[in-house]
Amino acid sequence: MNTSDSSKFPLVVIVGGGFGGLQVAKKLADKPVDVLMLDKHNYHTFQPLLYQVAMGGLESESIAFSLRKNFDSQKNFRFRIAEVLKVNADKNTIETTIGEIAYDYLVIATGSTTNFFGNKEIEKFAMPMKSIPEALNLRYSVLQNIEEALLKPSREEREPYLTFVLVGAGPTGVELSGSLAELRNHVLNKDYPELKKEDMKVYLVDFLPKVLGPFSDQASAAAKEFLTKMGVEVLLGVKVESYDGDEIKFEGGKTIRTKTVIWSAGVMGVVPEGIEKENIERGNRIKVDSVCRVIGTPNVFAIGDVAAMITDETPKGHPGVAQVAIQMGAHVGKTIIQLINNEPTAPFKYFDKGSLATIGRNKAVADLGKIRFQGFFAWLVWMFVHLISLLGGRNKVIVFINWVSSYINYNGGTRLIIRKFEREGLTEQEHLPVTVD
Amino acid sequence: MNTSDSSKFPLVVIVGGGFGGLQVAKKLADKPVDVLMLDKHNYHTFQPLLYQVAMGGLESESIAFSLRKNFDSQKNFRFRIAEVLKVNADKNTIETTIGEIAYDYLVIATGSTTNFFGNKEIEKFAMPMKSIPEALNLRYSVLQNIEEALLKPSREEREPYLTFVLVGAGPTGVELSGSLAELRNHVLNKDYPELKKEDMKVYLVDFLPKVLGPFSDQASAAAKEFLTKMGVEVLLGVKVESYDGDEIKFEGGKTIRTKTVIWSAGVMGVVPEGIEKENIERGNRIKVDSVCRVIGTPNVFAIGDVAAMITDETPKGHPGVAQVAIQMGAHVGKTIIQLINNEPTAPFKYFDKGSLATIGRNKAVADLGKIRFQGFFAWLVWMFVHLISLLGGRNKVIVFINWVSSYINYNGGTRLIIRKFEREGLTEQEHLPVTVD
Predict the structure, then answer these.
(1) Would you say residue A426 has pLDDT above 50?
(2) Contact A147/B99, CB-based, under 8 Å?
(3) Is residue B100 annotated as a catalytic residue, yes or no?
(4) Is A66 in the same domain as A136?
(5) Are A58 and A187 in a shared domain?
(6) Residue numbers in B near A61 (CB within 8 A)
(7) Could you tell me if B113 and B270 are in contact, meaning their C-beta atoms sit under 8 angstroms apart?
(8) B59 contacts A61? CB cut-off 8 A
(9) Out of B6, B415, B431, whose CB is closest to A437?
(10) Cβ-nearest to A5 among B192, B398, B437
């Protein structure tokens, strides 16, 4: 692919249309560069609300936004659906699923994926939730398991289908377990009159001694209390040993029979081939200098979840959150223009705006610097911040309506199995005539 | 499956949660019967708006409604996800994917599917659009083809990816070709600045000499004029001979190179096994008597698209439209109660409320008995009727917002490829480095 015919401006290739990639492209609007963005999807995913898609609270399209449409009016922007196979930093090209592309500047904003820490069995049977297709798979799987439970004649046989285990008590695990608890408390008996609230169990498990690890102790304690009151069984300081699709085993011998393990216990960067081994940090992240430049290259950048900027202040790099990606993206956009103009560049400085996590209806926790609060007001702040951050007026309105409708009803959302989720080797068809009472 | 333990009421099994099945269940609320509905999906599909899902105007969840939620408050209603494999009318049971079920009354409301009239090649390569998964496949396929066109170096090579042929000029074909023309006229160059309006072609083909066959001549002529003005090439009195995925051939020798043929040229009833051969009519419909009872059975009914009620007034049966299914459903609900009470039953009478079809922005046609009108006012009526018919307040509001947003923008909707559509043998990966200018 060759875009040099049409322009004599340097070509900036951005790989990934997440929070970071979007900012880079935006900062380069009306600047003397051509921008080419690649992504394997033609949309931006608003990851903070993925769990609501997974739990049937929102339709998938309301947290996705067309990358093409977003840049409709940016004249120097081009987009292609493609995946990067390899970076050839020495000759300034990338190999992609749509051919080789020569760049002048390259920004790797490929984000992160679920980290199963090498456990192939867990990877096979546990559900990840880092993309819209994965969130939909999770939704379908949860609903299918409830339907399946109805076909089982005994409580004993129903149990594993109605038991949900979340591994990893970060914001995703907390939000998912809270939503599952609300499904159990408010929806289960309405939608499935054959089942009682008590038939369903939700476990939240972490090997750390607290939920919401990076939050303040105050927020962690409040979140744990909220969850416990909602009926989530919180198991802390517990390490998962194995999961075979039927039973999860913990270190020390405890087991739980379950058909659903949701894995949000870790992420790792999505690093394309061609990045030097010695430039890969813990968590599969690419080591970058103070302007997010990949060590040893003059014109290749990495930002967001896939970047590790190791400094005295950030010995482990920055946290893998949207704010870091957004701020790094903006900084890299500015830096590229400075490099083109031979102007001095400035080191990246992260401004931590604080952390929010929601547990459920009227329940959230907020750590905004020294200001910490929990409960209803935190929940309002959480909703406001997420609503204004969503791309597109239509999406904002539709998400808002969904939330209002769910708040009034206790029973909103869209619990539809649009496409059946099938995992090979897992769904045995063992349907025999059964008695339902 | 046995539901007799819990109740001594007769069990009415309804197969299918479409327009007809819903009405039967509703009419049986608070009556001395148990109702069991089976459907392969856990939602009702509002088929009249399927084409908007296919064209990215609406998210799939806004035209689907949970069958469980719809009957949350109906105490005698049960639901299971299941498909019927066979009807054993002699012993009053059905065999299903979840086991054998004994019924007292059975209502077959399985609807219709796409009829390819036995042409296996067309079935393999053309796109049907009768369900939400099929509509999504169509959306993804259209968008993927436009993306693919961008990778082709010459106009000649791009052409088949940007040419869309609709076979069947009924309401579905008219609505789809109108939407594709609007995509071409208002969106194409904005979303894909490399492409011009003139690069995309939309054909609407029918072997009949008019569009909207069953409508008045006035409506047909208006629809054709609307389409032509929007840039759709309408080819009438033309019969399709073959389609191999690359080229569609018509009787007489004309051919069009296209990667997308959308087939809405006919439907056929979905008839479970076990129905006597001599009771199957043209179009794969089940012959029923004047109360929609399958000929020769005392307690098995068929309604809607899968039923053929042949009388002197309706020598070909009723048209395959939602209104027929709705009215038959209500009638059968009433009839079952009359049979249980040993009361006399009345023959079904169809009340034709009229027909509506939309072509695009401000453009629709309405045949309401003798009252016929076309254009803006028909379009308002069309929107109003469809909006009030949608299940669920949330869906109504969300569809309304989508429509308002699209009306203001000329560029609304959700053109997202959430899951890539892949057809075996069709998508060759022939991506070589290409030049984009």
Answers:
(1) no
(2) no
(3) no
(4) no
(5) no
(6) 59-61, 414, 416, 418
(7) yes
(8) yes
(9) B6
(10) B437
Burial of A237 (0-12, 13-18, 19+ CB in 10 A): exposed
Over the stretch B243-301, which tens digit does the pLDDT of each residue have? 999 999 999 999 999 999 999 999 999 999 999 999 999 999 999 999 999 999 999 99
B378 inside domain: no
Cβ contact (<8 Å) for B68 and A191? yes
Q: Which of B280, B314, B340 is the last residue of a domain?
A: B340
pLDDT band of residue B425 (cuts 50, 70, 90) is very low
CA distance, residue B121 to nearest chain A CA (Å): 25
User: Which of A292, A307, A340 is the endpoint of a domain?
Assistant: A340
Assign residue A43 the CATH number of its domain.
3.50.50.60
d(CA A188, CA B341): 35
Using a pLDDT cut of 70, give the percent of chain B over it: 95
Q: Give the distance from CA A342 to its chain's centroid.
A: 37
Average pLDDT, chain B: 92
In this structure, the answer to whether residues B234 and B335 fall within a common structural domain is: no
Asked if A414 and B80 come within 8 Å (Cβ–Cβ), the reply is: no
Write the CATH number for A228. Answer: 3.50.50.100
pLDDT in tens, A283-339: 999 999 999 999 999 999 999 999 999 999 999 999 999 999 999 999 999 999 999
Model confidence at A437: pLDDT above 80: no
> What is the pLDDT confidence band of residue B427, given thresholds at 50, 70 and 90?
very low
Closest CA to A212 of A127, A137, A321, A139: A321
A198 & A233 share domain: yes
In which band, very low, low, confident or very high, does the pLDDT at B6 lie, cut at 50, 70 and 90? low
Q: Are residues B272 and B246 in the same domain?
A: no
| Chain B: closest CA distance from residue A279 (Å) | 29
Whether A98 is in a domain gets the answer yes
User: Which residues of chain A does B2 touch, with a Cβ-Cβ cutoff of 8 Å?
Assistant: 433-436
List, in sequence order, every beta strand (DSSP E) within B221-315.
232-236, 240-243, 247-250, 255-257, 260-263, 267-269, 280-281, 285-287, 300-302, 307-308
Of residues B2, B72, B401, nearest to A398 (C-beta): B401
| B105 domain-assigned | yes
Distances (CA, A) of B142 to A321, B258, B401: 34, 11, 24
Q: Which of A62, A63, A190, A398 to mutate to test the interface with B (most CBs of B within 10 A)?
A: A398
Locate all alpha helices (DSSP H) within A151-254, ordered by sequence: 155-158, 171-182, 188-191, 217-230
CB A69 within 8 A of CB A83: no
Q: What is the CA radius of gyration of chain B?
A: 23
A95 pairs with which residues across the strands? Answer: A86, A100
| Radius of gyration of the CA atoms of chain A, in A | 23
Query: Do B271 and B249 belong together in one domain?
Result: no
| ipTM for the assembly | 0.89
User: Smallest Cβ distance to B81: which of A72, A98, A147?
Assistant: A147
Residues B107 and B38 both lie in one domain: yes
Q: How far is B43 from chain A (nearest CA, A)?
A: 6
**Which domain range does residue B221 map to?**
120-264
**pLDDT of the residue at A241:** 96
Cβ-based contacts of B412 with chain A (< 8 Å): 394
Domain count, chain B: 2
Claim to verify: residue A139 and residue A251 sit in the same structural domain: yes
**Which band of pLDDT confidence, cut at 50, 70 and 90, is reported for residue A99?**
very high
Task: Please answer whether residues A210 and A236 qualify as being in contact, where contact means their C-beta atoms are separated by less than 8 angstroms.
Answer: yes
Measured between CA atoms, how close is B184 to chain A, in angstroms?
A: 15
A52 lies in some domain? yes
* Per-residue confidence (pLDDT) for residue A272, from 0 to 100: 96
